[in-house]
Amino acid sequence: MVTLTRKPLNSLITMCCFSLLICAFICTNAYSESKGKTTYQEIRKDGRVYVFSSLTRMDDFKKSGELGKGIIKIGYGPNGETVVFDSDNAVYNYDSNQIKQALDDLKIQAYKEFEKDGRIYVFTSPERKAGFDKSGEMGKDFIAKIGYGADGKTVMFDSRDAIKEYEIRHKKVFTSTSGKKDNYQGDYSETRKDGRVYVFTSHERMDSFKNTGETGKCIIKIGYGPNGETVIFDADEAVTKYEKRNIRGK
Known about the structure:
Elements: H1 6-34, E1 41-45, E2 48-52, H2 55-64, E3 71-73, E4 82-85, H3 88-109, E5 112-116, E6 119-123, H4 126-135, E7 143-145, E8 155-157, H5 160-170, E9 183-185, E10 188-193, E11 196-200, H6 203-212, E12 219-221, E13 231-233, H7 236-245
Parallel strand pairs: 2-4, 6-8, 11-13
Antiparallel strand pairs: 1-2, 3-4, 5-6, 7-8, 9-10, 10-11, 12-13
C-alpha cells in the first residue's frame, strides 16, 4: 500500500491538471488552424461578452447592435457572464484563450525564487524544483546570468519562462550604450543611440549590439520613429511588436 502525503499529492494533482490543459490547448489550436486564419475580438456590452471571429460581423454589430445568427452560452464568462459567439470558430478561439490563461496562471503559481550560496535560483517547473531540492543540481538546459540579480548576484534559471517571469516581477531595466535606460519587457527591448531607435526581440543580438555597436542582419525603416527617427529592427518579429506598441496613423 502506498501512502501519499498532502504535499506530493497536491503536486501530483497540479501536474495532472497542467498536462490536461496542455493537451486541450494543443487540440484546440489544431482545430482552429485547420479552419484557417481568423481574427479574434471581444466586446463587452450590457453585461454580456460578445466574441467575434469575423471583422465584418463585428462591424455590423457595432453599427446595429444586433448580432443576427449566433451561439449563446449562459454563465460561460469568467465572472459568470453570458457569452455570445458569432460562430463555432469564435467558441474555439475563446476556449483557447481561456486555456492559455489557465496555463499562465499555473506557471505563475509555480514560480519559485530563492537565494542559496550567494546565488539566486528561479524555477517555474515544480518537477525541476523538486529535482534541485533532492540533488542540489539544476539539471540540463538551465540558464545562468552572471551579475543579473540584486547586488550583482548570479541568477540561475530553469527555463526561458523563468527569465521572463523574473523580469516581469523585478521590472528588469537594461542600460543602453548611450547611458540611457532601455524600455525592456519580456523578449522586447528598445534602445536609442546616435538619434536612432533600435528594437530587439533577441537577448543575444541585443547583448552583441551593446558589445560591438553593430546590429548585424537587420531591418531599417527611415522616419518610422515617434519623432521621425530611423528605427532599426533585429527581426520581423521586432517590427510586429513595435507596431503593436506604437500604433501609427494612416
